[in-house]
């Protein structure tokens, strides 16, 4: 049986995606300004995390192609 290994970078990407989706839903359905501000700041952190994890995923892909 073949088991593929998920990299930690991919897990971080999935985690930041879940955080971004939950922050968007919190901002859409919240009724207080505190929750809105918290959701907007969490969106900024999640977007930065997504950018960095995408960059590391691309770096891993380039290294996998260049170093067989």
TrEMBL record:
UniProt keyword terms in alphabetical order: Membrane, Transmembrane, Transmembrane helix
TM stretches of this protein: 40-66
Name of the protein in question: Uncharacterized protein
